[in-house]
Design brief:
mainly beta, about 60 residues
Length: about 60
């Protein structure tokens, strides 16, 4: 799993296989590209950071 942290401090979880890319835009923003939940294709969104979660590890 990957946890995306949005600029406002909220977050969401996605399956790692839905992630296409995490990169910096030309203006320095951190962006992620991932599949939409309904499978209709990828979309891009701004993030503040991300965390890769390991199975069996409890994050608190």
């Amino acid at each position: 799993m990957i946890r995306y942290i949005y600029p406002d401090g909220t977050h969401c979880y996605r399956a790692l296989h839905t992630t296409h890319a995490v990169y910096r835009s030309d203006d320095g923003r951190l962006l992620a590209r991932a599949d939409k939940a309904d499978g209709s294709g990828p979309y891009e969104f701004e993030i503040r950071g991300f965390e890769l979660l390991q199975p069996g590890v409890i994050y608190d």
